[in-house]
Give the backbone structure.
Amino acid sequence: MIQAAAPALILASASTARRAVLEGAGLRFETRVAGVDEAAIKEAAQAEGIPAEDAALMLADAKAVRVAAQAPDALVIGADQLLVCEGVWFDKPPDMGAARGHLQRLRARQHELVTALVCHRGGQRIWQHVAKPRLTMRDFSDAFLDAYLAAEGEALLSSVGAYRLEGHGAQLFDRIEGDQPAILGMPLLPLLGFLRQHGVLLR
């Protein structure tokens, strides 16, 4: 077997994209929703002038801590991602009108996806990683934007940037710097390296 029977792996995230990345890599794990107040953590971080990288780690850590308290013998993976464009942090759009506004603000600009992972076991954080893919949207037309929103529909509301690279989202971009798993919120190769070092996966 490639993966050890213990410890159990738990992904502390409701993200279907993150789950798909781990499933695609052949990992056995369960998913638990952490139920933390992400908005409050973000607001506090911004009020204190905390950098986006540290805020993403705080969010990922809060999720892992909550789930790890319920499963102390498991290895819990917490993850979070912040989209930052010209100093502005974006949240998931609440409706299609907000999704349109997101894409209009990102159009013809570069943004960064600050993507944090942490792993907890036995009440301690034992690993962390931050990836920062950079993506540049092209200057697409309003007609394209209308067609894109119609094609993707409310699936976009689960994405902080109102786009899905696993869908039609690649058509929005001129340039992408960073690997696909990190863009989807799960920097896979660093995580796999950690799991090998920790004895969860065969070296």
